[in-house]
Amino acid sequence: MDREPSERADVCVVGAGPAGALIASRLASDGQKVVVLEAGPRFDRSKREQQMEEAIRPGDHGSVWEMGGDRDAFSASGDRYYPLNTSRVKGVGGSTLHWQGMVMRLHPTDFDGSHDTDDPAWPVSYDDLRPYYADAERAFGVAGDADNPFAPPRDGAYPLPGFPPSYSDSLFAEACEELGITMHSVPNARNSEPYDGRGPCVGYGTCQPVCPSGAKYDASVHIEDAEAAGARVIDRVPVQRLETDADGRVEAAVYATPDGTEHRQRAREFVIAAGGVETPRLLLLSAADEHPDGIANSSGLVGHYFMDHLFAGAGGTLDRETRQNHVGFLTSECHQFYDDPGQPVERVADGETVVEATDEALSPLKLEFLNYAGPSPVELALSGEEWGDTLLSSLRERYGNSIAMGGLVGQPPRKENRVTLDTSTTDDHGNPVPDIQWSWGDRLERSLARANEIQHAVLSELGVDISWTVGPGDTGPAYHHMGTTRMGTDPQESVVNPQLQTHDVANLSIASSSVFVTAGSMNPTLTIAALALKCADHVAERL
Asked: Span of the secretion signal (predicted)?
């Protein structure tokens, strides 16, 4: 394709994931000249069934989304190793190409800092984002039901009806009813019926790493909308740095083509939508005489306050079948312990306390009922030494009675957790790679332990033979990168203002989870989308 820069552009967007795609679509539809620069390739949608087959075939075939190598090199020098490349995608569509597709709104308590912790408030409220949340749900085609008594207030129904509970959800319901724990549906960015030219989910069950049917939303949908409205999208052109003019405004995004040639894309406004790791990295790579610590970094906070969600889970086996109608994504959760994680759990019938109350500071808890727990038949077959009828008999005995709960716990913002540059290691263009300096802390570990306590109570009530627990010492991230260019009103304490515009550079905005002030414990993509749509409105006002 032609990778020469456009002669005229009103807006240059860096990144073609969900934030960049929505911004490009909205601004192009308003008549603005938009150029999108994407580091990764454009994937052929017609090959997704082939990708699915490759993903589930036994053996290590590498990433079906072509991650790895010098292009994606990174370092992890913190107290905890951070496996950055395990779950990210560079390409048109970004991480939505292989995400799970769960889309929840953050709670008002996340924004106003009223959790029983010392987490700071955001400079925007839930009500500020409420209309943008609704727009984002329509853009994604969210399927959901209004049955969650703990959800924040909303106006109107979800665009699509929710998915029915899975069979294993019905098993969990018995135990939860005994314990006074409320189950409810999960809003999903996948079609429960035809929507926006895409068909309904057909149950492949391979949502991660690939949805072959196109029922699950990915950001290439809005990239195509943007192109139809006149936007230009250039793939395989990683931006090397941003250059400023004498007035301190961004003059050009310097990008490299596959043959190594550098070009300068000029525009009136620039938006970085490259995620919580590559966004601060680009700002730091843009250091120059006029901004020696990186662009938009007068506060010195670019890269700081890196956050993620940590997984808590437990599971085992039950003396009955659990996996009928396996669908591959969550259909039920519990947000009862989100705003009040320290509340006790008691049996309804006799009032016996199963989990004691606590007044210790805890992060919000999001609990999940996993309907895809346990090994696959292929995994069981490959790990054994049996053959023929003996193997078949063993599979029938061992498969289909696993059951588990999961959950997410958000990290508190800690300044020492950060993304910086590792000058000792370079990528395929000679740039320092990102270095993740990651640690946990007491509150996070207490919160993970609390989630495990509640999970064990439910599983025990159900009669599960609990054989594994993931939590507080042995767990890992959900790969939700947040907080590295935090939002605020004080230029000394933040990188962007409530309009997502950097304090230092008037024509530079950031639309990413990197602007999150706190992590909450909800999957972040719907909030990313809401903030992106808000950012687009503010950029449009300045054009």
From this structure: none
